[in-house]
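Sat 14:20. Reprocessing the chain from the morning session after the first attempt stalled halfway. Input below, unchanged.
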Amino acid sequence: MKLAVIVPVAPFEPEDVLVQSVKCLKSLDYDGYKVKILYVVDRYGNKDTRAKKLKEFGVHVLERNNTRGKRAGAINDALDYLKSFNPDFIAIFDVDSRPERNFIVENIKMLKDEKAYISSSPRKISNVINFVSTTVEVEYHLLNYLLKKNGYKQFNGLIGVLKAKYLYRYRLNENAITEDADFSTRMHAYGYKAYYCDSSCVYEQSPLSWRELYNQRKRWYYGGLQLWKYRKLVGSCRNKKFKYSWYTALTLTYFPVLMLPFLVVSPFIILAKFRNVKKLIAVPGLAIHSLILQVSAFSALLNFLRKKDVKWTATRRV
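Finished this time. C-alpha cells:
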C-alpha cells in the first residue's frame, strides 16, 4: 500500500517553519506503508532557498514559478506529479500542521467504508501565547464538538487522510476561494462520507491578532457564499442530515452575534474543560471574537455582491 503526503507552501511561508514541518512529518508512524512526502513550493523569486533546504531532508519538492489556483492549484499539480507513484491514500497538511504521531495510522482505519473519502481528527492550537490565540483555542473546542456531530464534516484545508482515487476523480476547484469547503460540499452531495477520528489530533497555528483573524474569516465567509452555486446539487442529495447541516452552515454562521447571550455560561464551560482560571481571559475574547466575525461576514457579503475578490493574506508563524 502506498501513501503520499502533500504540503502546499505559499510564497510567504518562512523557511524555519518548513524545517519544523518536515521534521514532524518524517517522524510520524506510517505502519509499513510506502511513503512519498511532497512539498509544493510557490517560489517568491530567484533568492528563494526553501526548496533546496527541504531537499536536504530527503523529501520530494515540486517548485512552481506562479501561484495559479493558490492552494488548490498546488494540490492539483501535486496529483499530476504523483501519478506514477499511484498512491492508495493521500494525506494533506499545511506547513503549520503538527499531527500526532499516530495520525496517519488512526485515520486510515476510518476509511474502510467504500463511500468514505476522508478522515481527520480534532484540531488544537499550538501557539497559545496571547489573548487572541487563547480565544481561538476555546473556539476550537466548540468547533471540534460541532464537527463530530455535524452531518456536513468540512475539515479546514482538507487536513486529513483521503482516498486517492476520489481526489484524482474530482480534484480541487482552482476558482474557489475555499477549495476545501468546495470539495467537501461536492463529495457529500455525491453521497460520499467524511469520518471524524478522535483517537488522534492535529495541532495548527492560530492568528495572533484580531486583524489576522478578520482577514482569515472574511475569506472563509466569502468562500461559503460561493458554495450557494451547489444548492441544486445539495437539494438533490438524499442525505437529510447533510442538507440540514449544509444550509445551517451557510446561514446561521453568518450571524455570530446571535451567540453573545450564551456567553454568560461560557466561564463554567471553560473551567470545566481546561481546569485553568487563566483561560477565563477568553470570555471577553469571545465577545470581541463574535463582533469581529460579524463584521467579516458582512464585509465578505459586500465584496461578493460587488463581485470583488478577497485577497489571501499572510498569517504570522511562531
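DSSP finds twelve helices and ten strands in the chain.
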